Each structure stands twice: as C-alpha cells, then as structure tokens.
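Course assignment 3, question 2. Fill in each field.
Student: A.L.
Task: Predict the tertiary structure for the chain below.
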Amino acid sequence: MEVIKMGEKKAIKCPLCDKNAKFKDVFFKDRVFASGDVFEFKALKYFREQDYARGNCIMDLKQCCECGYIYNFAFNNDKMMKVYSSDTYYQQKNFTPRLNETLLNIKEKIQSHANKEDVFLEIAPGLCDLFLALAKESKFIYGVDPSPMTSLVNKLENVIHIKDFFNAAKLKRNIKHEINFIIFRHLLEHIENPRFFLKEVIEFLKIGGKIYIEVPNTLEIFEHKKFYELFHDHCGFFQKNTLINIMGDLGCKLIDEHFLYDEQWIGLFFEKTSENKPTHLSFKIFEEEDYFTESIKQLNNYLSDYKNIALMGGGIHSNTIIEFITQENLKNIKICFDLNPEKQGRYLQNSEIQISSTNRCNLEKIDCILMCMSLHEKKVFENEILDFIKSGLAPNLKAVILTAKEIKLIKIEDRNG
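Answer field:
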C-alpha cells in the first residue's frame, strides 16, 4: 500500500547543501523496480504469481529542511549497477519528430550562450544525440560516458569521447583543450552525492566558464500529483530555486533558464564567478500529508470499470505506473502500445504485459487506454487516439485516462449516435 509519511524530523547531513539538517518524510513505497528503463525479452512473471508487476527496491523520499532537496534514503546502488550492465536496459532514442525538435531547441539555446571558439564537455551524453549535434557547429567537444558509443563518435575530427565515468582529476590528464562549457542533462538526479559532483564540475572550469544543467521539475511533479514520476533510480529531486541557491554557494550565478515539455523539465544556465555569492531564494517544503495517495486511489477507481485495458507508451512511465496499480486491475491490462519497433515484442517488468504496435487486431477489444507518456500525451491523444476512434480501429474503446496533468478520465461518446 502506498503511504505518505510525515514523521519526526531528524538531523542528517544533506548530500546537497552539506548541512546537518532536519529531514522530513515525503513519500514511501516498497516493491518498486530498480529502474523503469528495463524491458524484458520474455514474460518473467504471470498474473497471480507472487510480486507480479512489482520490484525489489524501496523509495524512501525525505526532504532537507535547509535547502529543499529531496533524497531517496533507500537508493540501492548495487542493484542499479546490475541494471546498467543488463542487456534488458534500454536507452531512449530520438525516433520521433518531437524528440528531435526538442533536442535542436536545446542545442540552439546552448549555442546562444557560447562563443565560436568554446570547447564543450558533455558528461554522460548517452546515445550522443545532442553531443553530435553540437559537434557539427563547434570547435571541439569532449564526452565522458561509460556507454559503448566511443568507437562511433570518435571518427569525427573535432570529437573525443572517453569511455569512463566522470572523474575531474583523471579527465584533466586526457584532454588537450581548456574546457569552456560543461553540459549534463538528466544526470544529476542519478548521483548519490550531488554536491561533490557539482564542486568537481565547477572546479574544472575557469572564471567565466558556463554550465548547463537539465533535470526533471520537482514542483511540476508534486503540483500535478504525478506519483509515477518518482523513480528509484533518481537519488534526488530538485526544485529550481534549490539548484540556484546551491550553485550560488559554490560560486556560480544563474544567467538563463528554460522549461521543456510544458515545464516538466528545467534547463538552467550558470556562469562561474570569481567569488561565491549565495542566494536565498525560497523553496517549497512539502507539508501536505496525502500528496499522492488520492491520485493513486483515483486511478485505480477509474481502471476498475474496465476489463480490457491497454497502456499507451512502452517507456519508463509504463513500468513505474504499474507499481501503483492493484492486482485486481493489473489482471485486466492486456497490452502496452509503443511506436518504437525496438521495444515491440518486449515486456514490462515482472509481468506478461507485452509491448506491441497499435494495429486493428490489438485495438479491437480494448475498452480503456491508460496514457503513460507524460512528455507527449497531448500530441499522442490528438494525433493517434482520436484517429483510432474516427477510423473505427478501436470499436470498443469507452475511455481514455490522461495522466500528464493530474489523473483525468475521458469517456468516449457513442460514435454511432
């Protein structure tokens, strides 16, 4: 059962502000997956088996009352390392126009703060989409990441991709240029000691050097009660003002910001200064006792009215949302739809829910679609779901449940009436 715990405040050293701070309980849930980015090649569990659609990790989120940082005290690094080395772990690719459009917007925003002679370093570029886009228009760019992309990108003359984890001292021995601009996107939330990491990054730059940080927007998650955005593999959750305050304390000033995907992501630009100038921007302490409980209950109430349910979106959110769905409702989830051919045929974790395409045969009996793709929900609903209805591909579809901005039930009117 999902529990929002608001217990006694305890003094613990914060991994972000480094103060002996009081932490308050924010959210607790057991039996969650180590990572939502795992898609099995076969069904590992069948309905009625123990721990169907459940994992073996815990989320125990507590908030620092000094800086606002939310930390998962139950984060299990050993289990995460096993996930990253598994062949079932999947890195998201930019296979849709909207993903590519967002990437280009980020690239242009970064370039607007860079000089033509700047040398870039991207930490954990993953599949190197942004990395390669910047390489085409930059003097030189370095990448450091343990992923196996090194041999592919190092063919370019102005690129060096180092297959390793970021270590400032070690990296300095392997570069030939002065770094002017450091980029890391959707990395900071995965780091257990974010202050140590940020200090290393900042010390790598000279005065005037720039940093671009991109993280999920914690305020947006809480405002819209998006419980499925709480991942075990995210050690921490950041508010914008929390990051600005910490970076100011470490000697960097905010020079720009932008929001992506209807404010679901935050992008912050900082410049290293000659002195530390702490800011004291306000941040939200989450005092409410039932932030997510009612949304979880509401989702299960909606699902209980349907017998042939499909999940729309075979990504991380499908894996995380099933952790909160009751066994009574899980038995009625028949399939998960995704456009990505690399995922089709694979399964959500510890379940018999297979990822497949949205063809007539798969849609015919579906009476409810649960949206599990908050970044693209509006586009997919308008361009795909409504098309299923108009074309008659889903003749038995009675409802769509939206999740991007609260849980919302959309009932499909009789299309023959």
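Instructor remarks: The domain at 97-272 is CATH 3.40.50.150 (Rossmann fold). The chain is about 25% helix and 25% strand.
Grade: pending
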